Request: fold
Amino acid sequence: MSRPMPTQNERVLKDEDFIVSKTDLRGIITYGNRVFIGISGYEESELLGAPHSILRHPDMPRTVFKLLWDAVQGGREINAYVKNLAKDGSFYWVFANITPSFDARGALSGYYSVRRKPKTEAIQAASGLYRALLEAERKAGGGQEGMKASKGLLDRTLQEKGVSYDEFVLGI
Reply:
């Protein structure tokens, strides 16, 4: 499936909307509720079995996704503001809570995410940080060096504020 060209068209969740999805351990979508399907612009058949990364907007720094993956793969829940890319190239912001799922034996079996409409001021704060992280990635030439530069900037920013990533996200 080819990735859509991003546009400046924004889709906005309603206050009462909750996006719910589940993935397997590799991030392959195994479930999506009607709100998820609707806002993404994809058909259910296009989403199920697809990698969740099909929704990754190029305005999202890679280091944020690494942070998210490291947390859930380590068995910890995490919160984040995420800008997603819909099938038609439009975008939508979400406040995401991502949790690991465990089977009856306690083994990690997948991931569960509930997303809702973020506050406008939170989008502004996250956008500013994400632009700076993307610029650090770009200046370092992308690849592993870009990821390292972006992670360094994120770590310094959080240290200056005296908070963890989750505390930063929950505080905006």
User: Anything to note?
Assistant: The longest strand covers residues 91-102.
